Structure formats: C-alpha cells, structure tokens
Amino acid sequence: MRGMEHWLTKRAYLTPDNIAIELSNGETLTFAQLYERACEFASKLYTVHQNGHIAMLSNNSSDMVVAFWACTYLNVPVVFLNTRLTAREWQIQCEDADVKTVIFSDQYKEDVQQLTFKAYPFSEIHSFRSVECTLTTDMNLDSVCSMMFTSGTTGRAKPVIHSYHNHWSSAVASALNLGLMPSDKWLACLPLFHIGGLSILFKSVIYGMPVYLLERFDEEKVHRALMEHNVSIISVVAVTCSRLLERLGDEYYPTAFRCMLLGGGPAPKPLLEKAKEKRVPIVQTYGMTETSSQIATLNEAEALRKLGSAGKPLFSASLQIQVDDTTAEPNQVGEIVVKGSMVTTGYYRREQANQEAFRDGWFHTGDLGYLDEEGFLFVVDRRSDLIISGGENIYPAEVEEVLLSFEGVQEAGVTAIEDSKWGQVPVAYVVANEQVTADQLLVHCRSRLASFKVPKQIYFRDQLPRNATNKLQRHLLKS
Asked: What is the model's pTM?
C-alpha cells in the first residue's frame, strides 16, 4: 500500500489560517475551518452510510466541497452526478457505479424522490448528531477516490475510476508546468462534478491555494472576479472564453491574472488571435476525464510561438500519435494515445470498454491530432466526429473555425448528414447576429475551404447543444 497523510489534515496543519474557499457573497473558509467542517460532516454522514459508494448531486457550493472531503475521511468513493441529467439517467448511473447512498443539495429534493436509493439532503445530514467513528488519517494512494461518468458526447456514459494517486499526479504535474506562485488564486466556475472543476479542489489543498468558487459560469461574475478579486488562474472552454473576451471589451485584465487555461477541445484560431490582441494570457491544454484533467499543456513561454497547440505532455505523462497501431510521422494526423500516473486504471465494471481503450499500456483517447517536428500537440477533432465524404476526411473543428472567423458569428457546430452520392456531407448550425445570412457564410467558406469541406446547408439556431462544461455536443445538433 502506498500511503500518505490525509491531504486536508496536512494542509490544515501547515497553513491553518490561509483561505481555502472564497465565495462571491464574501463567505470564506480557511483550511482549518474546512478540515473541521469536513470531519464533523463525516461523523454525521457515518450514521446513515457505512459502506459502499456514495453518489453526490450538487451544484458548486461550500457544502459540496465539505461533503466531498468528508467522504474522503470515511474512505468512501464518491460518484459525481451531472445535475443537468434526468432522474432516470441518475438512476442508471447509480446502478452502473454500485451506489448505496445519494447525498444532495436541497434544491434537488423533489427530483431525488424518483430514485430507488437512500438519499439525504445536505441540510438533513447537518442536523444529525455526530457519532464516534474512526476517520481516515492516511490515504491509500491506490484506493478509489472518485468516479465520474464520461461526458457522454457519444454513446452511453461510462464510470471512470480515479484513484488518489491519479489526482495527486495530476495536481503535481500541473504545478510543474504552469508554475506555482504564492499569490495564486484559482477561479472555479466549471462544475465540480466534472474533472476540470474537481481537479481544482485537489490543487487547492495540495498547493495551499485559495479557490474563488462560483456556482456556475456567469460572465459578469467571472469578469468582476478577474478584475477585482486578485484571481490569477481560471479554467475555461472555448465558448466561455469567447464570452469573457466579449465582456472585456476595451479593458485589460490586471497583471495579477496570469493564466486562462483553455481546454475542452480544439480552440478556434480566431478566438486565440482575439485573445492575443487583448493581451489575455491563453494557455491551451488537452485532457479528459480519463486523464484526471490535463495531460498536455502549452507552457506559457511558448504560447505565442505555438499558437493553437495544446503543448507537450506533462512531466509524468507520455503521449503518442498512432495510425493503425504504429507511431505516426511528424504532422501526420492520427489517434492520440497516452499513458502516465494521472491516467485512469479503467472504467468501473466495463471490461469490454477497458480492453478496447487500453492496449500495450497506452490509453486510446478516441481523439485525433498530430505532433509537429518539435513534439508539440495539435488537437484536430474527435475521431467519432470525423466526416468522411467521398473518401476525403473532414474535421468539423476546421470548418467551425472558418465560420467563427466571420464577423457576427458567435457559435458554430458542424456535423454530417447522409448523402447518396458522397456517403456523408457536412452541414452547419450557427448562432449569429440577425444581419448574417447563409449566403454570406457560404461565400466565406468557399474562399477558405476545399469545396468538399463547405457545408451543404447552414441552419441558424438560438443556441447550440452543450454539456455542463459547455462542450459542444455535435451528435445533438440535428435534434
């Protein structure tokens, strides 16, 4: 067994009075207070749950943070549920992940009544009397800490296992790449039930770094936090980044703000160029639930020279591009495969999926990309989103980038429809100003893309389907 003193216990001992959590309403929790509340909550939760997995259903809140750390003191794996799903989907995921008990924030009381599991709101657990129980003092790094379901952009979501060692490796590798400043404060507006959000909690405790926690992304609240609350780092995806740049207008962020970590898929070049003009420190990253967040990140020193790249693999990670199970040449597009101490050991009770995903020690991501001559990663698209038209490969992200470069277009999504002649052809779904027409966009695309890549139809929408982390769900564009 690889053991380590419980991270929160250690942090509360080292820097008890430092801020752990800061909320937009002015409420704060020090590491000592977070430790005390987590232990107290654990002793109350113990009265109703003493074995098996716990599912957690909550939006971002200090209650959710306390409840999560409480579960680690009981050595109970936490299964995170996406609040945007239906009760039926929660039920299926709880069954898939072998959940025994559900704990949730009070706003979901009516929804949770449809589940067949024991379920307790945070407020009810707070009202319990504490009982004597043995809380974990040392973490077994090989134990399961948490489970999250893949975002489900394709097919049925699978429960991804995260060990304590996965989370530790991710946090340490991130710090080795991005650096760690005494003044760092990470703004968390991604859902904590997704890996991009949860990973910030581990960084906070391991680094001794405060987290400015928002319930959800709100560009006005995020903008105010960046301008007024000494935030140094924020995690975003392309659409939230775009909204923040729009809100920034002619202003500039304070010098304390040093990193906008951009993940969630290929970043459109027009967005990166706009950020460069506004001197916004974009740092692209590549990662997924199965890699416990980042596994490749562009070092800040290379951000302008390698615009559009997701960087190189982090210190404890390895990454290759494979074509037909052989290593690709530089600039050859193939599947991104990875390995390292932050990579999951597998999907919970999904043997076939594990056999398909893990081969010769490498995890096959299903994403397409290439490495340039210097070994920098460029992410092209999801393999499952690839459009093959008359034998030619079309990457939706490339077409979306061209559409987004047209003034007045805020969002763009490209997918395939069946075609009797070509097999598949691309169509586009766009959110744009009223002045923008389909003919204008088609002319714009024809001047920048090969004819087979030009969308055959353009449909205007008020919004595009996105998951809880604002990733575009291309498989839902036609619904």
From this structure: 0.86
